[in-house]
Each structure stands twice: as structure tokens, then as C-alpha cells.
Amino acid sequence: xxxxxxxxxxxxxxxxxxxxxxxxxxxxxxxxxxxxTYHNDLARTGQNLNETIxxxxxxxxxxxxxxxxxxxxxxxxxxPLYVANVVIPDQGTHNVVYVATENNTVYAFDADTQGxxxxxxxxxxxxxxxxxxxxxxxxxLYPVIGVTSTPVIDPTTNTxxxxxxxxxxxxxxxxxxxRLHALDIATGxxxxxxxxxxxxxxxxxxxxxxxxxxxxxxxxxxNRPGLxxxxxxxxxxxxxxCDHNPYHGWILAYDAxxxxxxxxxxxxxxxxxxxxxxxxxxxxxxEANNLYVMTGNGTxxxxxxxxxxxGDSVLKLVQGGNTLTLVDYFTPFSQAxxxxxxxxxxxxxxxxxxxxxxAPVPSLLVGAGxxxxxxxxxxxxxxxxxxxxxxxxxxxxxIPSALGANFSTPAFWNNTVYFLAAGDVLKAFALSDGRLSTxxxxxxxxxxxxxxxxxxxxxxxxxxxxxxxxxxxDFATNDPAVLHAYDADNxxxxxxxxxxxxxGRDTLGPAVKFTVPTVINGKVYVGTxxxxxxxxxxxxxxxxxxxxFAPTSGPVGTSVTISGTNFTGATAxxxxxVSASSTVSSATAIQATVPSGATTGPLxxxxxxxxxxxxxxxxxxxxxxxxxxxxxxxxxxxxxxxxSTSSPDSPTQINCGPTCSATYDSGTTVTLTVTLxxxxxxxxxxGCDAVSGTTCTVTMSAARSVTANFLP
Length: 712
Hints:
Number of strands: 58
Radius of gyration: 32 Å
CATH superfamily of the largest domain: Quinoprotein alcohol dehydrogenase-like superfamily
């Protein structure tokens, strides 16, 4: 059912580590201080909403490209992680990018400058090594198997959690281990008495059991999905190497500060397979800290009495004390066909969508597998299994044949879901009223081979969105990966690809399948088979700069001279995000007018080379207008006193009497009240916005004049 590689690439595991610092923030805004977990957040949306440097205007082959590369000692399957302002002993403060390889090496590189690592450490202990691929008779990972899953960082304790696989002991009788390490992000030193060997035994009669129990086998099982950290618990998930039995899907939970086990879950205790691998995607987590995974091919009998096996299913689990419990599931009606055709659901990973206020079903989960059907599920009622059905009508929505074979985690931004399946193109689906558009609202033209890509999004809030995707379909021949960038508002508009620049300027290292780029603070970090590649705005590009502006304050309508470089052809000038009319005087000067609606904040200038933002703010002063009161009497005898109050209060007020005019800030509401002289009668106002008896109200938006009339 589809032209994907054989099952050798299908059954690797889901390791979960969710960042404690963002464990309650499912709307997924990546802080500029770091990318701490797989696909940026616990919901796995892949969005960084604080990217103020990279924008659709400067991500092009003229202004953007490869800045440098740092060599590493093995394939990088794990997504690079990033922490800002790390104090490294005897080396000062650095923004640091963390990279892990299949050779069991962890590197801490300066994120902004090429050079030797700040520190590096090997996770192979006791004289051991990474596991040769030949030992497991599987070339899916070649030549060695060490660290495959994305680590997770707890920024509150400055700890990086990571799982490594090792071979130890004599060659004639080796032992195999998988261990959870907790490393100090400043030094690489082990913490909390680690590492901890990953071990478990559960009740079950399934494949590999002794008839009553099944024991976790660190040789057979493989951890591919990213780790997850939720409320002080590290979650690690597993599948197999090349579907070699016996194996099962496992999730093991460990206390983050003690490295002691907090729970174990097995997907097929009385059956076979059901691995959690998700093409490297991590466990998704909602705002209530419920966990979601998708399983691969295997026994499914949960619809039968006493059935406990969940192949090809979406699972919802909760942590209670030291127990990890399954509380709900969804299995497609076509599970038997998926199993028979190696079209496992678990090739993809789920994503938690932001709550859809006002929608019939506000709490949603989305994902897709090899079958290419997109499943939109109610997180509060996943739908379980519809036995004997010919569709999944019990769930919120399914879109059959929407995609090619999917080996990825989708991304989300601005009510849009992005998928990039194998043998397919990047597709954007609109999310409205709790349902997805049944066909793409936009799609790219570049087709990706196996395995497609997991897209990520960088944006400055709700503007400037870019979808990033790493094309790795030449991994089998060790040819370079290709980095692509698309306009997130219309992915038919490809902004950049790394094979555009002349002379191979932006060529990446050899491709590694399932890899995900990390985009933060103006740079893109990509792991390859031999190096960490770093992309950003080129230092010799024609990007504009702002050096000064004058005056530094003024009201709406003020003419401001902006000084800088590379202003030729400027397409936009803004005052704190509000577009302004402007004239380019020269390559180094622009005349701009403070626009209506502007507020105090930085100025920006956009050209084809990028967007420059001023380091200081322009202060928008409120305009002031004069308010004049006139008094009139038909016979020239009637009179009285007019007194003002205002909101907000003003230091000058009218007392007419002696003072019949005053100046007020724009937007001020002025209230006039008349006190009559003896024998006079008030005969009404003229020129007010509103009148109530002897009271007149005016809101200042220009110079104003009113008249109080008296009798006789």
C-alpha cells in the first residue's frame, strides 16, 4: 500500500521528555531563551513565535545562507537543542546548541560562532561502545546505534536528559544496555547519581514472555522518539530494530531528580509488536498533562472482552502516583488492513491543537500515518474502535488520501496545520470551527521522497511566518540534505532552498532521515551525518540597518529622518508595527511621517535584503488642541461661569470667568458645567458632542470651540 521502504525503517520508538518550564503551556510559544524539547513545545506544534530576525523578506538566497559548520563524530538523528546565556566554567557566558550523535557523544557548541565544542562527553561507559548495526542485524541505523532520540532540557535545573544504547563486556559474551543520563548543561557532568539503567518487567503472555511476565530487552528494543519531561517525570518510549521480534511498544517513566522509575506501560502485553516510534516524533501533551502517542503494526484486540493489545492505535495515558495508565484510545476501522499492508498508523506522531473556543469540539488532536489519512480526534473522547464499520464516523473528522505515506509530526501556526508526507509536497490545511479544510488551502511544488519531513514554523507572533522543512530523501546515498523555507501564509511561495546559491555555498552535510531543524534567534541549526550546519542572515548581505533617527519623539504627523544603510528600494517603514508613509532620500536616509495610530516603540525598515529594527524607541507624543468657550446673551445682560473637568485629568482647565480657553491632549474628554449669575437663565449650548441640561461634553480630536447661551 504505497511505495515506502520496507519495515526496516518502521519500528523505532517514542521517547518522551517534556520540558517542565512549559508543561502547562500547550499554545506553544517557544521562549527566545531556548528550544528545550522536540518540536519546540509539549503540544509538538513546531512553532517559534518569538523570531524577530528571520522573516520572509530576508530569507532568500541573497541575504540568507550557511554561516558555518562544526564537525561531529557520527550521525545526528536528534534535533539540536538550544539554551541562551549558559555560564560555562572558565569560558564565560554563551548561547549554546546541544548536539548528540549515534556514536554516543554529546557536544555543547557556541551557537553563534564556529569553533571547538565548549565541552563534549561520551555516554559509552564501562569500556563500552555504541552498538554496531550488525549486532542487531539491521541497517536502518548504520554503522552504529547510540543516541537516536532527541534529548530534553529542564531549564529550571539546567539538566539535559538523554538515552544512550551501549555494548559492553567481552566480545565473546557482550551485554547490552540502555541508560538514562542526566547531564549538567554547563559541564556535561552526570547528575543525580546517574546514569540509570532502563529496566522493567510487567505481566503478560505476549511475544518473548516466560508465560506470565515480559521483561524489557535493551538489545531488542529501540528508542527513537524524543524524550518528554512533564511535571518532574521523564518519559521514554520504545519500539524495535527492523521489526525483529520479539518486541513491544513500551513507555517508561523516570523521576527527573532521582532517576528512579515512576511507571511502565506496554502496548501489547498479550500480543506482538505495537511499537511506539513515530519517526522520531515525541509524546504530545495537553494542558491537563495527558500524554498521547501513536502505535505501529501489531496485535489489536482491545475491542474484545479482556483485550489489552493496541496495535495501530492512538493512546491517551495519564500519570497517577507511580502508575502510568491508559485512559482512552482510537483505532481506525481499517486496522486489520493497515496491519496486513505494513501501513502502520505509528509512522506519524500526534500533535495537540490549541483549544478551539466556540467550536463544537474544542479539544483536538491531529495526526496521520502511512495510510495518508488525516485523523482529527476529540481529546476528551478519542473514539475507540468502530467494529464492522466502513468509516471512522465516531471521530471528529477523517480525510482519506489527503497525504502520501506520512512519517512526520505536523506543525501548526495561525489556524493552519502543515504536513509534508513521503512522495508528496508541503500542504497547508485551514482549521476553522474545529474542523480542517478537506483539501489544502495552499501547497508547495517540490515533491519530497521518503521520508518526507517534519515541518517547523518561525514567526513574530502572528506575522512573518516561515515554514521550514529538511529534505533528506538522499540519505541512503550519503548525499546532502536540502533546507527549504516557505511563506507560511501561502506555501506555494518557496522563499529559499539550500541548493539555490551558486558554487555550493550552502551545501549541507550528508542527509539523515527524520531530522528536524531548530530555528531560534535568527539562526537555523541542522544535524547531519558528519556536522552541525548553522544558517542565518549572511554578514555580507544587503540587509538594511538603522543607526539613528531624529527627532526621537513627536506627535502623529511629525516628519522623522531615519539614518542607516542599504535603504535603497525600501518597501515598508513602521512605527512600532504601524505602517507609515515614507520617502527614500538616499541609501542612507529615509523621511517618514508618524502615522495615525502609532504608539511608542521601535522603528523598522524593510527592503528586499531584510528588515532592520531600531535599537531604541520613538516616543509618540499626544497632540494637544485648544478648546475655547464663548458666552453669548441675546440682550447682552445674561451671564454665568463655565468650568471644565477632563478625563484624563489635565493640568490646565477652563474657568470662564477669567480663563475661557485651555489646551488638552488628543483623546481627552472635556466636560463643561454652567453656574448661572443671579437673574440669568441658561439658553443652551452650541458646538458640543453631547449635551445634558447645563452640561456639555467634547472629545478632543482637533481645536474646538463651543458657545454657552444666556437670557435675558
